[in-house]
Amino acid sequence: TGRLVIVGAGQAGFALAAKLRALKDERPMTIIGSEEVIPYQRPPLSKKYLLGEMEFDRLTFRPENWYPDNGVELLLSTYVEEIDRKAKRVRMQDGAVLEYETLALATGSTPRTLPASVGGDLAGVFTMRDKRDADLLMGEMRPGRRLLIIGGGYIGLEAASVARHLGLEVTLIEMADRILARVAAEETADAMRAIHQAHGVVIREKTGLHRLTGENGRVCAAELSDGSTIDVDFVIVGIGVTPNDLLAQDCGLEVGNGIVVDEFARTSDPSIFAIGDCAMLPWKGKRIRLESVQNAVDQAEAAAAIMAGGNAPYDAKPWFWSDQYDVKLQIAGFNMGYDETFVRPGAREGSLSVWYFREGKFIAVDAINDAKAYVTGKKMLEAGIEPNRAVLADPAADLKQLLV
Ligand code: FAD
């Protein structure tokens, strides 16, 4: 078999290579990554790593020698600029070319930034995607400094939690009606808001940024949409990501919100796959894009399986987690289009779960410090079991009863 070239040395790119080797697939393989470090997991970057409680060594998927030992060539600090589908080769930023028989795009996504017209180009304005970003932010996280976080999604909330832990003053603004508006129900947002407020974060919803102002090129204040101004020492922008699909677009692959793939992670070119954050995949008759470790790994493994001669389609079973303070938020399922929620208190103080339904059908659960609800809900989703409402509604009932 000819060479597999994987563009992107992140969660999905690594998972694909590792799975193929686990399946005893021995084809030549090259992973090309634009970062200077060996593949590592991102979730701790906004959690324990940012807190200074986890070394980079513990973030890497495998030690450096795993790659040569397994015949996986790793080209770091290397950026693929062009795909030539006719000649079946990629061109890198230094002009070098590499031929492929099979190509996998695992390019991830890029944080949205603020335009320069509102001060997005000032020093002291950060986004959060890779180790470099986290290292820069760690240098800014000093007690007493004033941090403005723009965006009340997971990244913003996790950064707020770390910053409060380290003794910073934190204001978080969210343009929408409430935090977590895109990803979670009001009940989950209410619980998370209360936790952040109890830890001293100032959360201002329905509040957008008018502009950032600077002094000597460095951000010093933020004018908000309600006319108020706050002094800031630095800013984290957490307003979502866009898929890295330009390479695919430039070589004529079908692209929507991400690179369009089928249930085997194949693009419109049979020798090119796309996996992870950059891919737009079919799901229950719709096309969706998922931004999670679960999706990156499972989709990569489905791609590996078909490359190695199997044919098990990827049927996404989404799950996700977020750590904030001593709170673990766990999510199973995908709540898109929910029309009903059901809140159940958990056994521990402050713990609860939110059960999502669409047209009467159970589709997802959020669990806040309630591992039992998470595990039960996840099992039910996987087995296609509908929760018994009477059991759900009874806080004293054992959730295990839902599984029978
Ligand atoms: P990535 O891991 O981003 O890897 C893509 C790689 O490709 C990058 O290294 C990029 O530099 C490289 N690349 C891009 N273009 C090129 C090119 N042309 N040439 C060469 N290299 C290129 N998910 C969860 O499930 N739970 C969490 O708690 C969670 N927390 C997160 C916290 C943070 C701070 C971040 C940033 C993400 C978090 N995620 C979390 C999301 C999860 O990390 C991503 O969904 C996952 O990393 C996606 O994997 P990927 O391989 O698609 O992309």
UniProtKB/TrEMBL annotation:
Its cofactor is FAD. GO terms for molecular function: oxidoreductase activity. Residues 3-300 form the FAD/NAD(P)-binding domain. The keyword Flavoprotein applies. Its EC number is 1.-.-.-. It comes from the Bacteria. Residues 319-403 form the Reductase C-terminal domain. Keywords: FAD, Flavoprotein, Oxidoreductase. InterPro entries: FAD-oxidoreductase/Apoptosis, FAD/NAD-bd_sf, FAD/NAD-binding_dom, FAD/NAD-linked_Rdtase_dimer_sf, Reductase_C. Pfam families: Pyr_redox_2, Reductase_C. This is FAD/NAD(P)-binding oxidoreductase. It comes from Neorhizobium petrolearium. The lineage of its organism: Bacteria, Pseudomonadati, Pseudomonadota, Alphaproteobacteria, Hyphomicrobiales.
